[in-house]
Amino acid sequence: MDTASPPPALRLRGLRHAHGPRPVLDGIDLDLPAGHTVALVGPSGCGKTTLLHLCAGLLARQQGFIGQSFVRPAVMFQQPRLLPWMSTLDNIALGLKARGMGRAERQRQATRAALDLGLDAAALAHFPAELSGGMQSRAALARALVLAPDLLLMDEPFGALDVGLRGQLHQLLLARQATEGMAMLLITHDLMEAVRLADSVLVMAAEPGRIVARYTPPGVALARGDALVYRCTAGLLRQPPVRAAFGLPAVPAGGGEAATPC
Ligand SMILES: Nc1ncnc2c1ncn2[C@@H]1O[C@H](COP(=O)(O)OP(=O)(O)OP(=O)(O)O)[C@@H](O)[C@H]1O
Fold first, then answer.
1. pLDDT digits (tens, 9 = 90+) for 83-117
2. In a 3-state reduction of DSSP, which class is residue 252?
């Protein structure tokens, strides 16, 4: 008899949430299995952060089902949220300290995680305020990855980064996922980032927040080249529900509206 437990997963069914009297999420269904990436993309205010906070257990569930069987979830917030009175290295090692790991070992692991993300020894000795925004984002990502999460919840993690740095961190994350098999839930405003990284792209519309399009980009994310990503993003952007979600005018007749994005 096979007694192995099923692989972990995040599963949402009919999730509804209101902030006060105002409905924010209306009937969200989502599946995120181990080793996969789901990108939630939608306009500002459609409820993406609320949804991520519910998945992370930072907000209490009101209505609907949340099944979450990952054992080492980690969250990367919209802002780096580094503690200003600690060195960058101590910030990155903070979660390991909370797990009771000794100072020498946690500094060793934090240093390695930071170097992997392109931070150098000088940056690690600095306070966060002495780092550029991009370096702070790398430190926040290192702080999450050093915990070896099996689920990484990310809220607009790369919003403040230039296109080159974004690309580097995308590749680092995907390589890490390929070796460690972590699941990723990524919130982004950026359709192209969603198409580049995700196994499944869920497009949300606002008022109330709901999923209006589901799209599976072709192939595996690590192998998607720029041309494919541009083409698929352009195709997705021609879909009427996606255009409506972002408040874009309808594509005029004969403007190349595609039955499928790619
Ligand atoms: N704690 C709160 N109390 C009241 N309203 C809130 C609260 N948090 C969020 N909201 C409202 O809920 C709606 C959804 O907010 P949320 O931050 O989840 O959206 P979002 O899609 O992540 O937006 P953005 O992309 O701008 O970060 C917004 O209208 C916001 O003003």
1. 999 999 999 999 999 989 999 999 999 999 999 88
2. coil
pLDDT of 1 over the 50 cut:
no
Residues 138 and 155 in one domain: no
240 and 118 together in one domain: no
Domain check: are 173 and 129 in the same one? no
196 lines ligand 1 (CB under 6 A): no
How far is C-alpha 83 from the chain's CA centre?
A: 22
Residues 156 and 233 in one domain: yes
User: Which atom of ligand 1 is the closest one to the Cα of 20?
Assistant: 4
Cα 96 to averaged position of ligand 1 atoms, centre (Å): 31
Please report where in the chains the tokens 């990284």 appear, as a residue. Answer: 197
Rounded distance from Cα 151 to ligand 1 centre (Å)? 23
- With a 6 A CB cut-off, is 112 part of the ligand 1 pocket? no
How many structural domains does the chain have? 2
Domain membership of residue 93 (yes or no) is: yes
**Token pair for residue 65?**
């089902």
Measured in Å, residue 27 CA sits from the centre of ligand 1 at 17
Q: Checking DSSP bridges between strand 37-41 and strand 73-76, what pairing results, if any?
A: unpaired
Structural domain harbouring 163: 32-59+149-248
Q: Can you give the C-alpha Rg of the chain in angstroms?
A: 19
- Residues 20-54 pLDDT 10s: 999 999 999 999 999 999 999 999 999 999 999 99
